[in-house]
């Protein structure tokens, strides 16, 4: 049956994802192409002690990840960031948070798509813009086919990505212990700048929450999946950091365009680095696929709540996927990609995500620890550790996100604030904010 108005029909997405699929999806989302190049930049800031920025970033990501896990268990619906902030602060703040995260995701998709076409062009001399648009369009078709089909393809790509990292670790493991891992290139500020840079290699756990409506038993399985995914990524990244500086001088890593390729080439004395270049293509393609998935679910959730145009909440009659939302975010992401070099804008999207993280952590504090949801009281995964009666996890999540934001840079923060202000202006033109959205006060839809 064709979808009618979402607020009247109460249509929902199909719950088809278990813990393994959710965890694998999370690993695939987080394990993007960034780690293949960021290790070099981070080494230039932290030297042989590059493992420390990775550890700091992992801890910072864990705090906000736990907050997302708790809120996802209470409100297991699409449009995660919007839904959580709406529940805590009302539809106006929810709209701004959701708007910010939605555009940040689309811009990241465009930036990664441009990176994919650039890498492929270096290998084959194909034209960049058509390749970027073709990748984004192909990803949209996969998303239309269904969430399980998308996840299966994403898991396949994630395994290929993981193989590249495992290859780099395996061939350079024999050098571990040859350097002083407490030798830092700079002081504490450089370590923190490295942490802010590497924090973005952990982004993606928040996108897992957008799949809550497609998860089986989300109150139990989604928090576990987020924790498993972040833990797996942390172990992998730490191994990559330690073995990389063991095999190659950190100064050489810092100036390399393909640092992990340099690690493999140095450790093996062969041209296996070209294998890493091909694997990086799968990594970027996977990031585009899952980024579009998250953006389309964010748009779907906001539209179903009545704060974006209703057609965005319509599902495909045959596939039960948010077809209109997929089409709209795909077109916008493709338009962004035509700009070409959008590096500064991509940095803005990273700062925007951190602003959204601060709002999400604040939402958990505002909502308290015992409030019920659609089916229960939440997992308690982020609220059981208290100091003076206040949950420590969201407070630390706000603090670490704020610190990371401070080290992101002035220009990206100003651009992110411009995106937030735009969301406030757009929201002010909608009379839907004069009262409740289509979701009632306790968060039920339909």
Secondary structure layout plus pairing:
Layout: H1 6-9, H2 19-30, H3 34-46, H4 51-74, H5 80-89, H6 91-124, H7 128-145, H8 147-172, H9 188-199, H10 205-208, H11 218-247, H12 250-254, H13 259-268, H14 273-304, H15 323-337, H16 343-367, E1 386-387, E2 390-391, H17 392-406, H18 410-428
Antiparallel strand pairs: 1-2
Helix pairs in contact: 2-8, 2-11, 2-14, 3-9, 4-9, 4-11, 4-16, 4-17, 5-6, 5-16, 6-7, 6-14, 6-15, 6-16, 6-18, 7-14, 7-15, 8-11, 8-13, 8-14, 13-14, 14-15, 16-17, 16-18
Describe, in plain words, how this protein is organized in 3D.
The chain has a single domain, classed as Up-down Bundle (Amino acid/polyamine transporter I). Helix content is 69%, strand content 1%. It has helices at 6-9, 19-30, 34-46, 51-74, 80-89, 91-124, 128-145, 147-172, 188-199, 205-208, 218-247, 250-254, 259-268, 273-304, 323-337, 343-367, 392-406, 410-428; strands at 386-387, 390-391. The chain has a two-stranded antiparallel sheet. Residues 1-10, 370-376 and 433-446 have low confidence and may be disordered.
